Amino acid sequence: MAMKMDLKGIIEQMETGEQDAALTALQSYNREMNHCFTFSQEDEQYREEGKLRKLLGELVLSFLNRELQPSCQLACLETVRILTRDKDCLDPFLSRSAMSTLARYAGIAVFSTATPAHSQPGEGQAEGEGGEGEEAAEASSEGMEEASPSSENADQEVIAEALKSICNILLHKQTGQMDGWQVIAADLQLIKGVAERLKQCHDPIWNHEVRFFDLRLTFLLTALRVDVRAQLAQELHGISLLGNHLEATLGLSWADTLETARAGLEDVPPEQLPPLSRQQIELAMEILKILFNITFDTTKRKVDEEEAAGYRHLGAILRHCLMSHADGEERTEEFHSHVVHLLGNLPLPCLDVLLMPKVQQGSIEYMGVNMDAVNMLLEYMEKRLDGGHKLKETLLPSLNLLTESARIHRETRKFLRSKVLPPLRDVKNKPEVGNSLRNKLVRIMTHIDTDVKDCAAEFLFVLCKESVSRFIKYTGYGNAAGLLAARGLLRGGRDSGIYSEDEDSETEEYREAKAHINPITGAVQEEQPDPMEGMTEEQKEIEAMKLVQMFDRLSRTNLIQPMQLGMDGKMTEIAPEDLHKLTHNPLFPPEPRQEPVNSDSEDEAQ
Predict the structure, then answer these.
(1) Are 260 and 253 in contact (CB under 8 A)?
(2) Three-class HEC string of 342-405
(3) Where are the alpha helices (DSSP H) in 41-126?
(4) Is the dihedral of CA 351, 499, 479, 515 positive or negative?
(5) In the prediction, which pLDDT does 279 show?
(6) How many Å apart are CA 322 and CA 344, to the nearest integer?
(7) With the C-alpha atoms ordered 131, 133, 139, 142, is the resulting torsion angle positive or negative?
(8) Which residues does 231 contact at the CB level (< 8 Å), separation at least 6?
């Protein structure tokens, strides 16, 4: 009840219209509520307070459309930030005029709608030309400059508070009214305003908080609106803009066309570079998230030479990110996670930048190529695999990236094969038993999640150059059957991938044990007694008929679906009538049903 009385008192002070009274009341409210992020929604008191908070929001917005001293501007925007945490009190802030007011104080208004009395009409009308963000920020306090000049820091506090409020509103995307609010945000061209300030990434005047919430707002806009995503990527040249921003954030210099270094530390090996600061990591991760949003469909379309050059430039920066670390392992893992997700969006031919840096002392060299980045990706993938938690979300991005890199880059594939599928020596244990990376990957080839097991199988299949015999050698036929059935390769052969010729060297241990390896399990198996030993041919036939009849009964009750291997290497159903014929005449199995010829079916063994 005390809070209810406080709100009423604050509202009464605001309704007087006096700045000093309003300032004192709002500062008191802000201090008390600054750390309140949750609001009880079940009692009558909450509903009453909700009505009062909405009224307070309306009064604060009316104040923001007046000439205010900087301290009162800041107090009003702090109150807006607190009020917008409650999704049930957003109504006052969902109008076009409210959004325009907040955008102006944030310094990202592109054109004037519901212009405050102290703003010059018509400022910022030009779309995307010449510093609209700065003009809007100046306009927000221009009327009071002579009476109470604001410091640069105070201006940036105002900008930051306005940005936080807009971000809070966008975060409540589940609210029914938010669709209309997002349309208003897009219509007001907020992305253009914030992009203008992002261009000033090399300008030291902007503090960390403004930079961070500029990026957070950009991320939210691109996450919620497909049209904003496309606008930033194409019209506003988002790849180049954000790549430059990431480069400036990390303080990079270019040792070569596509080879980066930390400015001032060009001669320091990557593993000896100091960790990136907390602020650098925060900004970099926001940039990476935005870039992920606007490159989401890149791998699904062709890119021209100019775009490819831009992606290679970005890829070189991402390689540096991959080789950098934060202050703390957990933070580094999070940072690298965003890097890996974004690398997965780049056009596959552009991933050659991961191999371009010169081999230096301490580098991992393979076939004369620097494999530091590929090795880092492999180690990252194995950590996710060992973690075993939410493999679909944590493992698949890195595993997919390594698979596609190996498919298109010969050196990468050979290096990964040397690490994951070295010459086979352990033939006594099944492929899924053990602690090697091969064992771990084979184990998840039978994972309950189809996407996880398919991705693991695809990775190993590519490392085997899509050779069925080699794939079975390293995984066992039982583990490999799922992928082979999906590809129509159960009869053997090779898929249609294009790979260089190289020898599959066999170890002495493998050659000696090869004749005793069970191809189903992929391991040496002790000889088992023959269960049909001593039976006559007639007895064997009777047992076979019993088995077929059991299949027939289970099939008729729909407990199983009998299958047979077709001539195309794919599994096809056995029709009930065919199975019934088989129970009466086992010497003449049903012929595989002929499927219509599919012009796209090019997966036959060659």
Answers:
(1) yes
(2) HHCCCCHHHHHHHHCCCCCCCCCEECCEECHHHHHHHHHHHHHHHHCCCHHHHCHHHHHHHHHH
(3) 44-64, 70-83, 96-106
(4) negative
(5) 95
(6) 13
(7) negative
(8) 191
Answer for the pair 391, 447: CB distance below 8 angstroms, yes or no.
yes
Q: Is the torsion defined by CA of 183, 187, 190, 195 positive or negative?
A: positive
Burial 5-14 (b: 16+ CB within 10 A, else e): ebbeebbebb
Residue count of the chain: 606
| Structure tokens that stand for 12 in this block | 């009464």
165-183 core/surface letters (b: 16 or more CB in 10 A; e: else): bbbbbbbbeeeeebeebbe
- All residue ranges of the chain with pLDDT < 70 are 1-5, 39-46, 111-154, 173-181, 299-300, 491-519, 524, 565, 567-569, 579-606
Alpha carbon of residue 340 to chain centroid: 8
Count Cβ atoms below 10 Å from residue 513 Cβ, excluding itself. 17
What pairing do the DSSP bridges indicate for beta strands 259-262 and 365-366?
unpaired
- pLDDT computed for residue 599 by the predictor: 37
In sequence order, which residues have a C-beta less than 8 Å from that of residue 187 and are 6 or more positions away? 96
Specify whether the CB–CB gap between 472 and 481 falls below 8 A: no
Q: For the whole model, what pTM was predicted? A: 0.80
**Residue 566 CB neighbours (<10 A):** 17
Give the CA radius of gyration of the chain. Answer: 32
Q: How far apart are CA 233 and CA 290, in angstroms?
A: 10
The Cα–Cα gap between 547 and 364 comes to: 57
Report helix, strand or coil for 604. Answer: coil
